[in-house]
Write a structure and sequence with these properties.
The chain is an alpha+beta fold. It has helices at residues 7-15, 22-27, 150-153, 170-176, 214-220, 298-308, 328-333, 343-352, 370-387, 398-401, 419-434; strands at 32-36, 46-51, 54-61, 64-69, 83-84, 89-90, 97-98, 104-106, 124-125, 127-130, 133-136, 148-149, 159-166, 225-231, 234-242, 247-256, 260-264, 269-277, 283-291, 405-406, 410-415. It is built from eleven helices and 21 strands. The protein is globular. The structure holds FE2/S2 (inorganic) cluster and fe (ii) ion. Residues 176, 182-183, 186-187, 343, 347 line the site of fe (ii) ion.
Length: 444
């Protein structure tokens, strides 16, 4: 007999990501960040990683990245301690050698004439590297190509990548990125600060085409109109703040299905950010900061982030253990949160303070939550489609992936009656000047 799902069950279904879960099946059909390349830079490029509840070992040999199950298929010991050799990783227990591509190459304790090793299969997943991040594909069939996003095609000197740990379910983390209304509150600064691009201060820049600081726009215009436009890669959020009769502030952000966002950072920079489940209760954010204007200062960017999320596990300096740095005096006079200038800490509080998996059946969503409502529906529809054997998810084949460009993420103040165009034109100027960025509006 068919039993209807309770609303609690419907929401739980969105959050679970282990093998065989519905949401896990969706996430596995897309390339996912698995580590920063810097994590394998040391003398022994082997690292234990956890991704979507799976315990894996990532290693580099013959100049390629390999990702395999951590448990040895012989008797289950941990391959993350294995001996790294030219052709693969050798188990410490009985010396079986694995190539990290699913094959066992040797079983040295077996009789010399035995070819039983050819029948031993080991779970392994394809990997590739782009601009500082190693991506893995854990899905069925052959891995699809990566789309030609700005963060993937930009010259290496113009991209900086980093990661950080959050103690919450991946969906909680993702939902803050498709909620444009919160920036007027959570990230409010009572005064406009200097226009530097210090870590965590992306709202301090001016909107393109203006000398109005974003802090001021967000602070003074707290009821935005949010529009959703369906795209080939997910959806675009257009957030309008009508400044006066002539001028509108337009902020364009994106949901890159299923678990990434692309948002503006400053006039010349955008951020692509993935929220990748480690397990049900923790996730990593992986950010690629892309500049259209020339090389980025990776040393400075890294120094600022190392302080807040130091390797090797990139755990945050602030969190529930120190009340996310909360200070009541600061809250009175300087910031809305009382948690410092770093907007990443504000977001971290927003996603961690409800507990690792918030009970969504108790939530009361409003009009400003339109992005979240849209996303939950999209994920549910995709999970159902996969169960029904239909292929309706975004970027489901090479042809649709090859059409993806950009996506455009920008803040712009333009004439109120031209908000549909002004941001596209402004973005095209920086693309044309960059020497590498493509025109996202040209038919592919
Ligand atoms: S447990 Fe790995 S070779 Fe025996
Ligand atoms: Fe935020």
């Amino acid at each position: 007999m068919f039993m209807a799902m309770s609303s609690k069950e419907k929401y739980t279904r969105l959050t679970h990501v282990g093998p065989g879960t519905d949401a896990g099946e969706v996430l596995r059909r897309y390339w996912q960040p698995v580590a920063l390349t810097e994590e394998l830079d040391g003398p022994r490029p082997v690292k234990a990683v956890q991704l979507m509840g799976e315990h894996l070992v990532l290693f580099r040999c013959s100049d390629t990245y390999r990702l395999a199950n951590r448990a040895c298929p012989h008797r289950g010991v941990d391959l993350a301690y294995g001996r790294l050799e030219e052709d693969g990783l050798r188990c410490l227990f009985h010396g079986w050698l694995f190539d990290g591509r699913g094959n066992c190459l040797e079983q040295p304790a077996e009789p010399a004439e035995s070819d039983a090793y050819t029948g031993v299969k080991h779970v392994a997943y394809p990997c590739l590297e782009r601009n500082g991040i190693i991506f893995a594909y854990l899905g069925p069939a052959e891995a699809p190509p990566l789309p030609e996003l700005d963060c993937f095609i930009a010259p290496t000197e113009q991209v900086f990548s980093y990661k950080g740990l959050w103690h919450c379910n991946w969906l909680q983390a993702l939902e803050v990125g498709i909620d444009p209304a919160h920036a007027s509150f959570l990230h409010r600064f009572f005064e406009d600060d200097s226009l530097d691009e210090a870590y965590g201060r992306q709202f301090r820049d001016e909107a393109a085409d203006s000398n109005v600081s974003l802090t001021k726009v967000l602070r003074e215009f707290e009821r935005p109109e949010i529009k959703i436009e369906k795209t080939d890669y997910g959806f675009r959020l257009i957030t309008l703040r009508e400044l006066d009769e002539q001028n509108t502030h337009v902020r364009v952000t994106n949901l890159l299905f299923p678990n990434a966002i692309v948002i503006p950072m400053s006039k010349e920079m955008v951020i692509a950010q993935w929220h990748v489940p480690i397990d049900e209760h923790t996730c990593y954010w992986y950010s690629m900061f892309v500049s259209f204007a020339g090389p980025v200062d990776k040393e400075i960017m890294r120094a600022q982030r190392i302080d807040m999320n130091p390797p090797p596990d990139y755990k945050p300096k602030y969190g529930p253990h120190n009340q996310w740095g909360y200070n009541s005096e600061e809250q009175k006079f300087r910031t809305y949160t009382g948690m410092g200038d770093d907007i990443n800490v504000h977001d971290q509080w927003a996603v961690e303070s409800p507990g690792p998996i918030v009970d969504r059946s108790m939530q009361r969503l409003g009009r400003s939550d339109i992005g979240i409502v849209h996303y939950r529906r999209m994920l549910t529809d995709t999970m159902d489609a996969i169960l029904n054997g239909e292929n309706t998810m975004p970027m489901s084949d090479a042809e649709s992936i090859n059409k993806i460009r950009g996506p455009v993420a920008i803040d712009e103040i333009g004439p109120a009656d031209q908000w549909q165009h002004c941001w596209k034109e402004r973005d095209l100027l920086r693309r044309n000047a960059s020497g590498w960025a493509t025109d996202p509006w040209k038919e592919q």
